[in-house]
Amino acid sequence: MSIWTRTRTQLAIIPGLVALATLPAIAGAHYNELDSAEDKKIMQLPIRTDGPKSLDPVEGSSTYDNMACAQFYETLLTNKYAKPLEMEPLLLSEMPTTADNGTTWHFKLKPGVTFQDNACFPGGKGRLITPEDVFYSLKRLADKKFKLKNWWLVDRTILGFNDFKDAQNAGDVFDYDAPVEGFVAINDSEFEIILEKPVYRFLYILTMFQTAVVPHEAVTYYGENFARNPVGTGPFILDSWVPKQSLTANRNPNYHEVFYPERSEWSTADKRNRLHRAAGKQVPFVDRIEFTMFAEDQPMWLEFLKGKIGYSEVPNSNFTDAFDLVSKELKEEWLRKGLRAHSNMLLDLTFRGFNMEDELLGGYTPDKIALRRAISYAIDLDEINKTFYDGRRTVYDGPIPPGLEGYPEDGISPSGTRGPNLAKAQQLLVEAGYPNGEGLPPIRFYTTQTAENNAVSEMVKRQLAEVNIEFEAVFMDFSTMIENLIKRKSPMFGYAWGSDYPDAENNLALFYGPNSSPGANRFNYSRPEYDAMYEQILTMGPSEERTEIYIKMRDMVLDDCAYVGGMARERFYLINPWLLNCKPTERYYGWFKYLDVDESERK
Amino acid sequence: MWTYIVRRTLYNIPVFLAIIFLMMAALRVSDPVAAQLSKNPTAEEIEGLKKEYGLNKPFIVQYGVFLKQLVTLDFSERSWDQEFTVSEMITKSIPPSMAVTIPTLTITAGTAICIGLVSAFFRGRVIDKTLMFIAVTGMSISVLVYIMIGQYWGAFLPSQYFQDWPFQVTVDGTVGSSPWYFFKPENWIAYCMLPVMINVTVALGYDTRFYRAVMVEESQKDYIRTARAKGASINRVMFIHMLKNAMIPIITRIMISLPFIVTGSILIEMYFGIPGMGRTLIQAINAKDFPVIQTFTALFAALFIASNILTDVLYALADPRVRLS
Prior knowledge:
The complex is a heterodimer of chains A (about 600) and B (about 325). Chain A is α+β, with helices and mostly antiparallel strands and about 600 residues long. Chain A has helices at about 5-35, 65-70, 130-140, 160-170, 200-205, 215-220, 270, 295-305, 320, 330-335, 365-380, 380-390, 420-430, 450-465, 480-485, 505-510, 530-540, 545-560, 600; strands spanning about 40-50, 75-80, 85-90, 95-100, 105-110, 185, 190-195, 235-240, 245-250, 290-295, 310-315, 340-345, 350-355, 395, 445-450, 470-475, 490-500, 565-570, 570-575, 580, 595. In chain A, the strands form 6 sheets. In chain A, strands 14-18-13-17-15-16 form a 6-stranded mixed β-sheet. A 4-stranded mixed β-sheet of chain A has the order 1-10-9-8. Chain A starts with a helix and ends with a helix. Chain B is mainly α and about 325 residues long. In chain B, α4 (about 85-120) runs antiparallel to α5. Chain B is globular, with a radius of gyration of 24 Å. The chains are: A alpha+beta (about 600), B mainly alpha (about 325). Chains A and B meet through α1, β8, β9, β10 and α8 of A and α2, α6, α7, α11 and α12 of B.
């Protein structure tokens, strides 16, 4: 190589070095832009996955739709931040009352609640909410234009509402002014809703974001784009939504009077975490909320460790980094950094269900029940829990998750068929007509294609092989799985159900005959006596009598062995020291307004 | 040349129509409505969705409707999964993808050609073996490993020690909403440079091996020996004579890669939070969002056909012996 060539090569390196040296300076411009907002209280939080798909409550269904909508819209009732299983009024001045045992409910709207200022209102000024807004919002659930995605919440519940739905959807124009017998406005702030019969869950439905109050002006003004332009009464006003990337919102300056829970509402443990420190103060505390969507766990975890986002769910792969495996306590070195841990037991049922209409596995005759029970006895859920989830899940009998009425003591029911009990499994195989598994065709198990499901299925296959049951996992994407369930084609399937509200009735509905596929009863379980009991509990409020029926229903499902399971997941969160008042819950998502930031901790 | 282009375009129309037909038929093997249902669906909800999406019509009608949309360039159909029209989703997703893919393609091609030349020139010697070892190692490791290591060691860890460290772990909620946001130099460095470096590292191995093979073949040709005999310098032989004559495979390789500029990289976009086409597409596939999948496939097929025709034209420009007829 000539001297000149070498010199040229060396010279060529110089622009590269200059470029590298200037990188921080150029990138610094990015940070300077961010610093301009320094005088505001800004809170950065994560949303897992690609975030919401719609900001219109009636079209929403996922957790992430809920998380986003709850910042802009509000419901008549909500969950308590300090005690998330309990309800409290949000857009009401007091809890609804009933004089006839739950058929007619009387509501009083909270005075002074206005919609957010928006161009859809005359002069851009948000107006007071009225009973008509509540009725209008509920009527949207019945409009087929919105795909009837959440109609099931109020189906056969409100007097005359089903007739209204059928009549309006039969024509070309959906008339929102047409009356519904069960909607009675008394004056500008009071109204009644009359039900077909007492349905206790109705109040829980009113806590769900799909029933949030929306103004008709905004729906008309934004038309098809309403789902991207939320206008509610909520604590935040949408600033921008970049799908798959971010959602930002500013504080609603006209937010009505909502105060941080009083000191007396917090438990001793919560007080130890100083969650009561803002007691009695008007919310929200921050000026701006910025959500980042994380399709993967690692970036979310690293952003949390950098201190950029306020809290993070602890990814499975990082659990043992932060927590002691045995005690499930946060490790000392993490505590020293000022991080705080919080865990939530979800109202959750993960299970391996049987299609009760399947030729091999379905049916209610003793031999069919014996076969399902044999399978159940051969599966060791504790081994699965320990191997794949570090023992963080709660294994329990029956469909009622921990924390709810009807949950068996220590999770063990006398009707349970939890394994491993190989001797019992073999005996049941004899009763089923397949001694030592002879003549039994392979059990086809439909599940979604994930690395975890692959590994768990391998373990189940090995466990069942111990009693000579051949297990064949069939992997597919989620929508194909749903399609198979809807068409009742899955002999055995892996599935999960998160309770919509904290009442066992919601989980027991999974076995109610009329809810069979395509409904939520994916088992296609059908027992007339079970259905009769379900119809009975619908009308009952909390009582010993109702709990007894819950237990009977629970044990009936266990006796028939409609599924193997279940397990409830526990979520672990870590909270950065700069995020105050944070007690993550997945029961509802209106709690972000209670959060605050301590800028001194962040710096 | 123009006659050739028009003729090739006309020849490709049946191919394009066949691609659309097969793609639409393949999509309809399973029922897309299942992915859109609520938690507790009813038969009424399923029928309503089928009607709304036009899935109750015969397949040939659905095919015709989509072709009409393509011909009239009407992409105003709403996504089944998101609250946006197809055109909005595609126009918002392609620029962020391009912020990563264009630099990746440019840097990879430029670097790989240079390494290929050097490697071919030093064929069989230590420098060649070292370069090929690095290339093969680079391409043998999963992109996911590079992403995990890159995010941790390239973005997270240094930021703990250097306050102004330029690379960010992921796109966060503070960034702007314009799809062209990532093209501003400071934003590109913060969010795209590390992903580009990872992409280049992975792609470089494949390209280098290919270009080396091309250059080795070329370096054995008589004209190289003649040029050297006439006293041409090594640089001139390599960068003028050899490179020019190797342009046909180089053009082919680059042109084949061009349509992928709009597809983005699924893993890179998911991990680095880039709201690009890769993420949009995988989300659409998971949700069986036919309007987005169909439109994107049509766009990709059109780009592929266009790049093929353009490749032929470039052959003629690069090598006068090639005649377009």
